[in-house]
Write a structure and sequence with these properties.
It is a single chain. It is elongated and about 110 Å long. By secondary structure, it is mainly β. It has 2 domains: 56 residues, no CATH class; 102 residues, Sandwich (Jelly Rolls). β4 and β5 form a beta hairpin. The strands form 2 sheets. Strands 6, 7, 8, 9, 10, 11 and 12 form a 7-stranded antiparallel β-sheet that branches. It has 2 helices and 12 strands; from the N terminus they run αβββββββββββαβ.
C-alpha cells in the first residue's frame, strides 16, 4: 500500500473532526419553532415572479433597538400597521383602544335615571364584540327605594342590585365567539322604583376581556 503524505492524513483527521462537530450541531440545535435572539418576518408576495412586490405581514424581533427590547408588528394586506407594541414603555402602540370619557360621579342629578315603577331602560350603548367577556363597574343612587340591573343583548348581565350599591361584574357576553365576533353588543341599564322614587346609575368602567 502506498504511503500517503502526512499532510493528507492530517487533513482527513481534521475533516473527520469537522463532520463530527457538524453532526453534533445538527442534533443539538434548537427546535424550528423556537428563535433565540433572532427575528422572524412573514411576507406576502402578490406577484410570485417579482420578489420586489413582497410586503411585510408580520414581524417578530426578539432584540429591538439597543438589543434589549422585543418588537412585535402585524400589518394588514395594504401595509397598514394594525397591531404593534410600544417598545419604549411597554403595552400596546396600536390599536388605540377607546376609553370611557370622564363621568360626573358626584352630582347624581346629572346621572341617567328613571322613576318608572316597572323595569325600564334608561341608559344604553352599542358596542362591537371583540372579546368574549365584559367588565362593567357602575355607581348607583336612589331617592326612595328601587333596583337596577344590566341587560346585554336582551339577557341579564350580573346581579340585580339595590340602589346605593356598587354594580361591579365580569362575565361572558357570548357563548359562541366564532359566530358573534364583530356583531353589535347592546348594553342596557334598567331600573324600577317603588312609589314616588327615582333611581340613578353612572357607569365608571367598561371594557372587554379575554376568555
Amino acid at each position: 500500500m502506498a504511503l500517503l503524505p502526512e499532510d493528507i492524513i492530517d487533513r482527513l483527521i481534521q475533516m473527520e473532526r469537522r463532520i463530527q462537530a457538524l453532526s453534533t450541531a445538527v442534533n443539538t440545535r434548537p427546535p424550528l419553532n423556537e428563535i433565540v435572539n433572532g427575528s422572524f418576518t412573514v411576507k406576502r408576495q402578490p406577484n410570485l415572479d417579482d420578489p420586489n412586490t413582497a410586503v411585510t405581514v408580520a414581524q417578530f424581533i426578539t432584540s429591538g433597538p439597543g438589543g434589549s427590547k422585543p418588537v412585535l408588528r402585524i400589518n394588514d394586506a395594504y401595509g397598514h400597521e394594525i397591531l404593534s407594541d410600544d417598545i419604549l414603555t411597554g403595552g400596546l402602540a396600536r390599536p388605540w383602544l377607546p376609553m370611557l370619557p370622564p363621568q360626573d360621579s358626584v352630582n347624581q342629578a346629572n346621572w341617567p335615571y328613571t322613576s318608572a315603577t316597572a323595569w325600564t331602560t334608561f341608559a344604553t350603548s352599542t358596542n362591537v364584540i371583540w372579546q368574549p367577556r365584559l367588565r362593567l363597574r357602575m355607581l348607583t343612587k336612589v331617592v326612595g327605594t328601587g333596583q337596577i340591573r344590566v341587560m346585554v343583548n336582551g339577557v341579564q348581565f350580573g346581579p340585580t342590585v339595590t340602589t346605593t350599591s356598587v354594580f361591579d361584574f365580569t362575565g361572558a357576553v357570548t357563548t359562541d365567539m366564532q359566530a358573534d365576533f364583530g356583531k353589535d353588543l347592546t348594553v342596557e341599564i334598567q331600573g324600577y322604583v317603588t312609589g314616588t322614587s327615582t333611581v340613578y346609575a353612572q357607569p365608571v368602567r367598561m371594557h372587554g376581556l379575554q376568555s
